[in-house]
Amino acid sequence: MVQPSFLGNDNRQLLEILAKLDHSYRGVVQLAKETTLEEIAALDAAGIVGVRWNLIEGRSALPNLSDPQWIDFLDHLKAMDWHLELHLEGNRLPEIFPALHEHGVKLVIDHIGLPVDADPLQDPGCRLLLEAGQAGRTWIKLSAPIAPP
C-alpha cells in the first residue's frame, strides 16, 4: 500500500491499516529528509519497505542531492534495503534519475514514468528507464498512465 500524496508525511493512517492486517502486506510512506535511521528501522518493523517522493511539477521541487541530509536519507534507505518510489514527469526524470541511480538506491518509477511525448520511445525519461533497467535496481510501476496532451 502506498501513502497517498494528499496526506504528505503524515503516515499514521497507513500504519494503522498495516497494523490491522496480517504481515504479508507492506507499505510505502512519505518521509522528510530529517528522518533518522532509527525512525526508519521502526517503520520497517511495522511493515514499511519504501519511500515515495511526489515530485510532480508545481507540487514539489526536486531534492538537491548534493545536500548532506538527502545523501544521509538515501544511505538510510539503502541500509534498510528499501526502495525509493519516484512520481514525476518523464521529461524531468533525467534531472534526478542519474544521481539516484549512481547512489545505488533501489528505484520504483511510478505511473510508467509519466511520458510526456506522444511516442514514449522518443520520451527522454522512457529512454533513460529502458537503459537503466539493465542494472536490476529499477522497476517501473504500471499504474494510472496519463495520456500526453
Automatic annotation (TrEMBL):
Transmembrane segments: none
Ranges of residues in domain Amidohydrolase-related: 1-145
Highest taxon listed in the record's lineage: Bacteria
One Pfam family of this chain: Amidohydro_2
Protein's UniProt name: Amidohydrolase-related domain-containing protein
Organism whose genome encodes this protein: Vreelandella olivaria
